[in-house]
Amino acid sequence: MQKKQNLKSGAADSRVDSNLDFGVDSEVDSGVKSRAESKNKSKAESKSAPQINIFLNGKPMQTSAKDSLEFLEILIKDSSRNDATNAPDKNSATNATNATSAQNTDNLVYIINGFATKEAVVLKEGDELFLIKKGEMPPQDALESMMSARHTPKVHERLKRASVAICGLGGLGSHIAIMLARVGVGRLRLIDFDIIEPSNLNRQAYSIDDLGAFKADALSAQIARINPFIATEPLILKITKDNLAEALAGANIVCEAFDVAATKAMLAQHFHAIFPDTPLICASGLAGFGDSNDIITKKIAPNFYVCGDMKSGAKVGMGLMAPRVSICAAHQANLVLELLMQNS
Predict the structure, then answer these.
(1) Stated pTM of the model
(2) In this predicted model, which residue has the larger pLDDT, 27 or 196?
(3) What are the CA-CA distances from residue 162 to residues 184, 186, 208, 256 (Å)?
(4) Alpha helices in 10-93 (DSSP H)
């Protein structure tokens, strides 16, 4: 009986105590004691190990773990025994410890500096880690960080401060807006005067339920369902040279996504007379299908860019179809990110 007391004071676990209650021989007792002493030694070494500062689910914390798998193992152990010793701060890692409570890593997504992996990655100062339980809605204060978990590190804070105006919300503009919302551009000004009709559905980011609604309003509502942290400014407005200055004031970048050549030309002609230092990204040549690699991004002049193949305009016998339209929209959205990161 005295041995049981000594082992308990030596931090033997509850499973071992239960065995001792049923009587075990001295050889087993010795093995248990050895394991308990080893565990205590490991704890002592861990406490003295150097700490590094990392981010878990968007919140700062410290850890002595050498790699990502050791860190995950610590989270699981600390979650299961509900012990703060050598554990992340519970307020900093609430979502992670909840996710690991079942000790089942199969239902977890583990993201390290924007890359999803469950291999051991050496941890460094300032690393960004996310631990997300599949299929569950996290608390609101963690959702934004988790949505940006697959970004390249340090990108999100820069993008959320940006404002981008999109002129025209058809096949190009609707997809540009959704891509920028997904990556977390903080403010999107959505400008279009038209409503959604059935022929738009072959290439534009709307659904049957949106028919008859103004494009600006429908797209704003869709973005709110994708990323509720994005501020949208829907403007039901036809852009002209007379309202250009007011409609686009304050935007860091403007995307032209009109489907009428004359309106495209008007914006290109007058924009930089009013906003000489603001990048304008236009589109030209995206009709038809095939020749995906012909669509390129080209710098025409300072702060003036054009995406497309520069030749395939929509006309009788060559319509606008979702794949090429989306490729061009992706070029424009990708250039927005590039310019925002450069300018920041």
Answers:
(1) 0.73
(2) 196
(3) 9, 6, 32, 17
(4) 14-21, 26-48, 68-81
